[in-house]
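Fresh eyes needed here. Kindly weigh in on this sequence plus structure tokens:
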Amino acid sequence: MPGGTNSTEMTATPATRVLGISAVAATAPMILLGLAISPADVVQGEAVRMLYLHVPSIWVAYGSFVLTSFSSLLFLARSKRRPDGGRHYDRLAGSAAEIGVLFTAITLITGMLWGKVTWGTYWQWDARLTTTVLLFVTYLGYLALRRLPADPMVRGRRAAVMALISFINVPIVHYSVDWWRTLHQKASLSVGRRPEITGEMYWTLLYSVLTVTIIAAWLTVHRYRVIRLEELRDEENLEMLISSRRNEKTADGTGHGDTT
């Protein structure tokens, strides 16, 4: 393949098959735990079950954006050493960002549904909600920047810088409920602090986070492959265009329209 692509990057491997099977297998117990086994909340009642998709989604989004930023740093470092270096990290950053945006959207949707039940309205310009929307929009902008026509390395560097700038909002989103007075409850899971829930709800939430993480990892692998396939398509189209122009020049130089 053009560009020296490893065939394992483009086809399913035993590891990715296991990852996909694990994602499917883990989803059924998650649904069972979340909808049936875990008890209803004493205050929110059955609405609390939204927790088992809402919280894992934002944690996966955080993790995806961390991966995007780390890969962007590696891409910037490698691309300075070699003109064609670091493309792997650029693809990884892009695929992780796409998954992060997807799960941020899920977070917003489930949050709105949850808010309708608990607050009586789908939306409030609350600090947590507002910063989450800003996070969603900035990474949409990052993905749009990756689609702009430009030299791949130049485009990759621009996108990498934007990824690092966009990441600034991630800790702001997470700690917004601690820094400002908000309608949103405190984080159910937070590093360095005791969880807000206990018992079956706590373990169900942890299992849900693990399951959604596996699903996100599987999706990231496939998005990486799609991005690489798109690059190969563009490279082949460029080679065909160059070959066509060369044939035209050859035909003009010999005075014949047929180069054969």
